[in-house]
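Shall we go through a protein fold together, starting from nothing but its sequence? Label the sequence line and the structure token line clearly, so we can match residues to local backbone shapes. Would you write everything just below, so we can both look at the same thing?
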Amino acid sequence: MLVALGAHPWAYPMLEVVHVIGVALILGNLVLLELRVFGWASALPIEPLARLSLGLVGLGFGLAVVTGLLMFGTQPGELLANRVFTVKMALIMLAGCNAGWFHARRSLQLHDTTARVSMLLSTMIWILVITCGRWIAYV
């Protein structure tokens, strides 16, 4: 499979496109939910919106993981030696910990300051993940 990625000139770039789509689904839907928690579109019930947006976040994360692993498999040594790549992976783990804590404390139901801070932190982390993803090729 990894050999096939190098055999066709469009294979790796298309993998990158699907990876970006996955990341866009993650960030776009997290921002949508965050805006609702901060009071925008308050006519929309938060529970159904959260189910929809978090389902799409899960789909995006799945796409990003599968494509990311395939891309990683083409040059694992170079990526592991790249400091920006390791920062990106640490940020993804931090995002996961933040999401786990957010849901464990039932932040969607609380709508408190801590929930809002956690959501803002999540958005900032994912923006940094995207930034690191772009910088990997240049560092």
